[in-house]
Design a protein that fits this description.
With 303 residues, the protein is α/β, with parallel strands linked by helices. Helices cover 33% and strands 23% of the residues. The chain is built from 8 helices and 13 strands.
């Protein structure tokens, strides 16, 4: 089973001709509301890929809470460890331009009151996977990682939003997920240089002693296990509509594949297809593909 410890938001999205520059006002479309939050997104993506998923998080005592949990409830994600904490549910204000690129401003709300002790005591009795991101308290995130590793679970951390972390912070992490920019920022923090993203991924994996996976947009993803040979997977070509949630889709589907016993390359391949498909529809959670949709694209790519 996959346990996701992380954020739950309601996304408020407006489309613009171009993303605003500092101090600039631009006209946007009518506001659209979508369930979001990196924790919730990854939980839903993994569930739609066929995994059994539990989400641990917090929402506020407001009207946004029910909307933020609606897609998760419909998909039968286990929400018994989601608690009401404080008055406001987390909100993300998102602008999306004509090329599908976005900017995001987060108001964390109840997410900052999420605690590792909410994770059921028997969550990792039979191993499993814990998924983490950086939208809830850093202290609670790594407390959850320690507990999961001590119980024999694998721990996947999405380093997003990016935060500089000491090398020792990764001691309980099994798999580190970053995008190309986050990989470069983390490598720069440690004084690691590379000729390209594959070199950076390999060097980071060796330095940190973990598996590092970097998503690189239309070029797919690259990974290295503890500094070993680089694994590369392509991404299908799509016309992007909205890239919001694509990285979370990759993360959730990757975890679902690993939880099902797939090897790293196979799980990454499925995740890359899912991430690309998520870019073809507006919004985060409504765009996440099902396992059948991913299978169809994979079959087309191999024929």
């Amino acid at each position: 089973m996959i346990t996701v410890f992380g954020s739950i938001n309601l996304d408020l999205v407006t489309r613009v001709a171009q993303l605003p520059r500092p101090g600039e006002t631009v006209h946007g479309s009518d506001i659209a509301q979508f369930p979001g939050g990196k924790g919730a997104n990854q939980a839903l993506a993994a569930r739609r890929a066929g995994a059994e998923v539990r989400l641990v998080g917090a929402v506020g005592q407001d009207d946004f809470a029910g909307q933020a949990l609606s897609e998760l409830r419909a998909a039968a994600v286990d929400l018994t460890a989601v608690e009401e904490r404080g008055n406001t549910t987390g909100v993300a204000v998102i602008t999306v331009d004509e090329a599908g690129e976005n900017t995001i401003v987060l108001s964390p709300g109840a997410n900052l009151r999420c605690e590792a002790k909410q994770i059921p005591g028997d969550a990792f009795a039979s191993g499993g996977i814990l998924m983490l991101q950086m939208e809830v308290s850093e202290q609670e995130t790594f407390a959850a990682a320690r507990a999961a590793k001590a119980s024999g679970a694998s721990v996947i951390l999405s380093l997003a939003p990016f935060q500089p972390l000491a090398r020792e912070a990764f001691s309980d992490i099994s798999v580190l997920l970053v995008n190309e920019t986050e990989a470069a920022d983390l490598a720069g923090q440690y004084g690691i240089a590379g000729a390209g993203h594959e070199d950076v991924v390999q060097a980071l994996a060796g330095y940190l002693g973990v598996t590092v996976i970097a998503t690189v947009g239309a070029d797919g993803a690259a990974a290295s296990e503890n500094g070993g040979a680089v694994i590369r997977v392509p991404s299908p070509k799509v016309e992007p509509v909205d890239t919001t949630g694509a990285g979370d889709t990759f993360a959730g589907v990757l975890a679902a594949g690993l939880d099902a016993g797939e090897d790293l390359a196979s799980a990454m391949g499925r995740a890359a297809v899912a991430g690309a498909l998520a870019c073809t529809k507006e919004g985060a959670q409504p765009s996440f593909p099902t396992g059948a949709e991913v299978d169809q694209v994979l079959a087309e790519l191999t024929n």
